[in-house]
Design goal:
- By secondary structure, the protein is mainly alpha-helical.
- The protein has a domain of 221 residues: Serine Threonine Protein Phosphatase 5, Tetratricopeptide repeat, CATH 1.25.40.390.
- It is 44% helix and 6% strand.
- Helix 1 packs parallel to helix 3, helix 3 runs parallel beside helix 7 and helix 10 packs antiparallel against helix 15.
Length: 500
């Protein structure tokens, strides 16, 4: 009985839709919340198994539109690529296979009929509805859980964190402005029984995100996650810091400074070292460090990631299969993913991060399989990174700069850059907007290829200018709130949700 229920839970999550009319119908074998709840009373690990299924959706292939079998459809890391390309920091260097062409040409963000406009929508709503399903099984997302009912608190905490994570990315991708605005951007669903909902305002969406994450931080305060693929208190604090920074009021930035300081001071995550940042070679050209490549979830600076194994069943259709020259990949076969030439030129020659890129501007010395054999890894077992502590140091600097605590902002930035540059004395001369601009630039450089530049662009209300190596719109500039920077609500939602 237990085994068959796990199978039902896994298949229901990984292959079903989120259950609204605008997505695919639920499979008839999906267990009800009552069934899960009753099973959970006999064996609490059933509910934990369901939460693990939500995390599995983050790296599963064809998790948005199974029938489409798109090679850009593989969970969170697929949309990291979308965002890096929209922000223009990641360049599609050639167009032999067609994946991402509608993203880099901005067709996906200006034409609501494009499949690429629907994929993030469907993926994140699938996560939301799965999180709601888990919470409904233990009484719903509004239930007050006693402090001594730790198992239920851990389920609710993780489910709320994942719901907030999904709404946060939806708000970024489908909402133009942050803050407490009245722009109507997304339908909100907080349980699995609600019918189609109308669009809620930016303020309402962010209020839910922040409330969910505050509960998650509280409920997961003593949670021992036993694996970085799960959300714990510090990951929830990191997501909350991102959400508050996106909303961007002065009180929000003060909280970002406090949250990120807690993560940096108490989380137990040291900064990514020089050796972990870039491949290093001896005079004969042999690799001398074994801890680089951003390919191992055991890296101490990683706060959130997943240990991919053969059982994960990933190959060409994966982030590594799109980006890494040393994986059997599109990147090596003819669709290279390279750094924007304008951004690359802003990296000083004495910055070790400049060595992450080869002469063709491929990230061959940042992201790579341990064997470093071109096209060598056919079955992907190199891990996925979702969040690392270096992000929190940069967010801490950004928060302190925004609340006028410039000495603290410089200290945080210096802490990171001392591991990247020979000389960081120039930082002491920065203030005001120049300091904010430097933090934004360093965020783009440090986190290149990790899906975070788009978020920073919107937080900073920046304008991006495409470098000379872009296939389309080279030299053209786009503001953060231009039509090209935000997806439209997809056609399938408009057609099937009469409330919009």
């Amino acid at each position: 009985m237990k085994k068959s229920l796990y199978i039902l839970l896994g298949s229901a999550l990984l292959f079903s839709s989120c259950g609204k009319d605008f997505l695919d119908a639920q499979p008839t074998e999906k267990p009800s919340t009552d069934q899960i709840s009753e099973a959970g009373k006999d064996d609490p690990s059933v509910l934990n198994g369901y939460i693990l299924g939500i995390y599995a959706t983050m790296y599963s292939t064809f998790s948005a539109i199974p029938a489409d079998e798109g090679h850009d459809d593989f969970g969170q890391k697929g949309y990291d690529i979308y965002m890096d390309m929209l922000s223009s920091d990641m360049v599609l260097g050639a167009l032999n296979y067609g994946w991402y062409s509608n993203v880099v040409r901005y067709n996906a963000t200006t034409d609501y009929t494009r499949t690429e406009a629907a994929k993030p929508w469907r993926y994140y709503y699938k996560v939301i509805m799965a999180a709601n399903y888990a919470m409904d099984a233990v009484g719903g997302s509004e239930v007050e859980v006693p402090a001594d009912d730790k198992e239920t608190r851990y389920v609710i905490g993780q489910a709320k964190a994942m719901r907030a994570y999904a709404y946060f990315y939806l708000a970024n991708l489908y909402g133009v402005e942050y803050g407490s605005g009245n722009d109507k951007i997304l339908p909100i669903y907080t349980n699995t029984e609600q019918p189609n909902q109308p669009l809620s305002t930016t303020k309402e969406v962010y209020d839910l995100i922040i409330s969910d994450l505050e509960t998650a931080v509280e409920y997961l305060s003593d949670y021992d996650r036993n694996g970085k693929h799960k959300v714990n208190k510090y990951v929830a604090e990191g997501l909350l810091a991102y959400a508050l920074g996106a909303r961007g009021a002065q009180a929000d930035w003060q909280r970002v400074a406090t949250l990120t300081n807690d993560i940096i001071t108490n989380g137990g995550f040291p900064l990514t070292t020089k050796s972990q940042t870039v491949a290093q070679f001896n005079a004969a050209g042999a690799l001398t460090n074994t801890d680089g490549g951003f390919n191992n979830v055991a890296t101490p600076s990683w706060m959130w990631g997943v240990d991919l194994t053969l059982a994960s069943n990933l190959d060409l259709v994966s982030w590594w299969g799109q980006v890494d020259y040393f994986t059997y990949s599109y990147a090596a076969a003819g669709d290279p993913k390279i750094i924007d030439k304008g951004l690359f030129d802003k990296i000083p020659d004495n910055d070790i991060r400049k060595k992450q890129f080869n002469a063709r501007l491929l990230p061959t010395n940042k992201f790579y399989t341990p064997q470093r054999v071109p096209m060598g890894e056919r079955q992907v077992v190199t891990d996925y990174l979702y969040m690392r502590v270096d992000e929190m140091v940069l967010l801490n600097a950004e928060a302190n700069a925004n609340i006028g605590n410039e000495a603290a902002a410089i200290a945080s930035l210096k802490k990171l850059l001392d591991l990247r540059l020979d000389n960081t004395s120039y930082l002491t001369s920065l203030s005001g907007q120049a300091l904010k601009n430097e933090i934004y630039l360093q965020t783009r450089i440090e986190l290149w290829g990790e899906g975070k530049s788009y978020l920073a662009m919107k937080r900073n209300k920046a304008t991006v200018t495409r470098g000379s190596n872009h296939l389309y719109f080279s030299g053209q500039s786009f503001k953060y709130n231009s039509d090209q920077m935000t997806f439209p609500i997809p056609q399938v939602e408009i057609q099937n949700n009469p409330q919009i």
